[in-house]
Design a protein that fits this description.
Layout (H helix, E strand, L loop, with lengths): L11 E5 L4 H10 L6 E3 L11 H11 L3 E4 L7 H6 L1 H21 L4 E5 L28 H21 L3 E6 L1 E3 L12 H15 L3 E5 L5 E2 L1 E3 H14 L6 E3 L5 E2 H12 L4 E5 L14 H7 L7 H23 L1
Parallel strand pairs: 1-2, 1-3, 3-4, 4-5, 5-10, 6-9, 7-12
Antiparallel strand pairs: 8-11
Length: 323
């Protein structure tokens, strides 16, 4: 399939969450397309949980494409602490944006869902048809269900109004400039930070949540951004689409690999009283390749090395500034 840069039919593009981890990469992809005018709203100017701000945003920007990436999100611990906020804020942002996009005559809406929406015991690999075959894993359910409501809205609006909205389900994203805050980070940045700090402190061991038996699929953020922009250019159907690599790794193997790449040589101690989250996650990614030619390019170890290198450089700069 040809490059999306040769077939991108939208000129005024609004990217919510465009200054975030994934959003910056999507914006970078779009800046390579000729004649595209980008709008990246800041929360300080437009609170997407508030309907009045959503209406004002669309009136101010008049986009023909919206890529909705803004989300209130975090790892297992953050989900446990904020289930109500994660449900309400994500639900209201999605519902209001899609409704106002329809009323404003926006030509296309790209809704980004989450792998957390899948049922807890979905057979591996996760197929899009399995999305409604059970309840999500409990710690992520409020967030996952709020995001999945955009799929319901997207499909029902297409049927009733002919509104062109698509829904994408990315695997766990990682990469340079990820969120490394220990209170809200996902598993890869959390483990990188733990290993680097333990190495620097000369610690003899490292404590990690869970049993290590759960598995996850990870997608390098640059690959995820390319998938989103390709889907925006080429995909115009109501069925959801998985975005990933189609491979999984056990958390125990992930910890050992990150420890190796960060040169942490201590012992790994598992906090088995802490939750594992969903037992397994691995996606069937055939629909993304079939429908808009997406295939992930970055190997997992290369992506991890690039992420670790970025974090090491950041903390070295911070240390130099303190000194």
């Amino acid at each position: 399939m040809e490059s999306f840069r040769e077939h991108f039919p939208y000129k005024r593009v609004l990217v919510t969450g465009g200054s975030g981890f994934l959003g910056q990469r999507v914006v970078q992809q779009l800046t390579t397309v000729e004649n595209v005018e980008l709008f990246i709203p800041r929360r300080s100017s437009y609170d997407l949980v508030e309907m009045a701000d959503v209406k004002r945003l669309l009136a101010d920007t008049n986009p023909d494409l919206i890529i909705h990436l803004a989300a209130v999100v975090g790892g297992i611990g953050a989900n446990q602490k904020n289930p109500g906020r994660f449900f309400y804020d994500n639900l209201m942002m999605g519902v209001q944006l899609i409704e106002q996009a329809r009323l404003h005559g926006v030509a296309k809406f790209v809704a980004l869902g989450t792998v957390c929406s899948y049922p807890k015991f979905t057979p591996v690999p996760f197929r899009e048809e399995d999305l409604w075959n059970g309840y999500p894993e409990e710690t992520n359910a409020p967030y996952g269900l709020a995001k999945k409501m955009m799929l319901v809205q997207s499909q029902s609006y297409r049927r009733q109004y002919g509104f062109n909205s698509i829904f994408l389900l990315p695997a766990n994203l990682y990469g340079p400039a990820d969120n490394f805050n220990p209170e809200s980070s996902h598993v890869i940045p959390a483990l990188i930070r733990k290993c680097v700090e333990a190495r620097e402190n000369g610690d003899s061991h490292l404590d990690v949540w869970g049993t290590g038996n759960a598995s996850r699929e990870f997608l390098f953020v640059d690959d995820g951004a390319e998938a989103i922009v390709r889907a925006a250019a080429y995909y115009d159907e109501s069925e959801p689409v998985n975005i990933g690599t189609g491979t999984e790794i056990r958390i125990s193997e992930l910890v050992n690999l990150i420890a190796q790449l960060t040169s942490f040589k201590g012992k790994i101690r598992w906090e088995t009283d802490k939750p594992d989250g969903q037992p397994r996650r691995s996606l069937d990614v055939s629909r993304a390749y079939e429908k808009f030619g997406f295939q992930a390019k970055t190997s997992f170890e290369d992506g991890l090395r690039r992420t670790i290198d970025w974090y090491e450089r950041r903390i070295n700069r911070e240390t130099a500034n303190v000194v």
